[in-house]
Amino acid sequence: VILVGHSAGGLSVTSSIHKFPKKISLAVYIAATMLKFGFQTDEDLKDGVPELSEHGDVYELGFGLGPEHPPTSALIKPEYRRKLLYHMSPQQECALAALLMRPGPVLALTTAKVEEKGQEVEEHVPRVYIKTLHDRVMKPEQQEAMMKKWPPREAYEVDSDHSPFFSNPFVLFGLLIKAAVSVGSPI
């Protein structure tokens, strides 16, 4: 099995490789949160959570536990999506993505932690990181900080916004094939 996670999906990849290290041949993170044990420290939050306040009030927040509690979900407002998520992507891809966009479980994601179970993860599951060079959500410096803390086996770069599957799909596809071949996976 090869797991691929984009953005906050990196947390699910990390959780899976901790739970099933012998069943996964490769973990690929694309502009993704790659923290060995999830959000354990303030530094982890700084590195792994998008900081978009410089753009203003960009989120529609949901308060599933009531207005007196922290938000439980977040969705980037329509007027900010192109600027933040898809500024290098074709317009038709942005329109399609807008139809599929759903709120993210922000409370669950920012409190995600993985139990430490020794070195098994590093020994059994090679990781590849694909850095998006023009990302306005998971900024390149955040991606670098996570790679420095938990170095992957390989790191690639793609000339892309936060959504390389729209803005540079052929290069992304090539990097995914290269990553799979590097661990001897059949394609």
From TrEMBL:
Superkingdom of the source species: Eukaryota
Q: Which residues form the AB hydrolase-1 domain?
A: 1-169
PANTHER family given in the database record: AB HYDROLASE-1 DOMAIN-CONTAINING PROTEIN, METHYLESTERASE FAMILY MEMBER
| InterPro entries given in the database record | AB_hydrolase_1, AB_hydrolase_fold, MES/HNL
Report what the protein is called: AB hydrolase-1 domain-containing protein
